[in-house]
Each structure stands twice: as C-alpha cells, then as structure tokens.
Automatic annotation (TrEMBL):
Limits of the START domain: 18-166
Superkingdom in the source lineage: Eukaryota
Gene Ontology terms for molecular function: lipid binding
Protein's name according to its UniProt entry: Acyl-coenzyme A thioesterase 12
GO CC annotations, alphabetized: cytoplasm
Length: 197
C-alpha cells in the first residue's frame, strides 16, 4: 500500500515535469498543453484561481465534490479510506454514444508541501479491488496517471495544474475535443475555476 501511494505521487510528479509539452490553447486564466510519446497522449491544463492554495487543495482533494463541476463524473463514492491522505473511490462516467457507461476504481493520494515552493499534490491512478469487480452493465476503464498540483502564487491566488496520461482506450473521448477545438477541456476547466472561487 505504501509503495502504491508513493508510486501514484511519483508518477504524477514525473509526468508534469516531462519536457516537450506543446501548448495548444490559451484563454485568460487557462492554458492547455499536450505531450505525445508513442501511443500515449498526455494532457496538462493550468488554471489561475483567485483563492489561497491550501483552500484549493482541500476542495480538490475531496472527490465527492467532483460531480459539482466535472460532467465526466456522474457519481463518486468513497469505497475505502486507507488513512487521511489515501482514499479509494468508485466513479461512474457517462456513456459515449452507443456505449455503456464507464466506471473506475481509483486511488487518490494527497501530499502537502514540505517547502513553500513545492506544490500541494492530489494524485490519481486506477487500482484493482476484489470487492469491486467489473460489472457487465459498465465498461471498466483505467486511469494510468492523473491529478492536480497546486502552487501558491500569493495569499489570495494559486495556480492549479491538472495533468493526465491518456491511453488509446479513452482516445475517442479526447479525439472529439482535440480535433479543431479543446472546448470540452476548457469548459471543464472553467467550471473547476468557478467551483473553486
């Protein structure tokens, strides 16, 4: 368990620190980058938010709030609280046209910064739980690596950076967004900022 949570946080840190990100979109408070390596596409969304970093961390670290701003979450429930920094959630996502709804069993690992220059971290990855086997009504999907890094800019503002590694399985969802427009990603980011502020 300790190794899984460590690797969850480490994977997110390494993903965000990769070189070769290409910026695809800039709005007033939102920047979107993509990174391609073989058949793995990664996505990074940076949001400027007018609240302190510790507050953004407490709001983003509780995934049961996620349905309030992310339309990709229909339901989200805590399956196990391993300790105050590690929880396992069960998430149901809406179906694509002609497909079953997707579901995820995810580990969310939280880390507070040791130094003022370091970010708060909310790392996410799929895990397997024998008590939650895949169901025939849903398509069990996997999150390889995703999460938030929250950097304090001042007492009243912070930068929230969301990174996600995308496999070929979720490509159809993203392909629609990335061809010609990343509107859906931007809309979700705007909803996130509105929720936080």
């Amino acid at each position: 368990q300790a190794y899984v949570s460590y690797s969850n946080v480490a994977a997110l840190t390494q993903l965000a620190a990769k070189s070769g990100w290409e910026i695809t979109s800039t709005l007033d408070h939102i920047k979107i980058w993509t990174h391609e390596e073989g058949d793995v596409l990664s996505l990074k969304v940076e949001m400027q938010v007018k609240i302190p970093s510790h507050l953004a961390f407490s709001l983003l670290s509780d995934f049961t709030f996620r349905q309030q701003w992310d339309k990709h979450f229909i339901t989200c429930e805590v399956l196990q609280a391993l300790n105050e920094d590690e929880k396992i959630y069960y998430v149901i996502s809406p179906p694509m046209t002609g497909h079953k709804p997707r579901d995820f069993v995810i580990l969310v690992s939280l880390r507070q910064p040791c130094q003022p220059s370091e970010p708060y971290i909310v790392a996410v990855k799929s895990v397997t739980l024998t008590s939650m086997p895949p169901s025939p009504e849903r398509c069990r999907s996997e999150i390889l690596c995703a999460g938030f890094q929250i950097y304090g800019d001042s007492n009243r503002s912070c930068t929230v950076c969301y990174s996600k590694q995308v496999t070929s399985g979720v490509m159809p969802y993203l392909a629609a967004n990335l061809t010609g427009s990343s509107r859906s990603i931007e809309d979700t980011a705007l909803e996130c900022i509105k929720f936080l502020e």
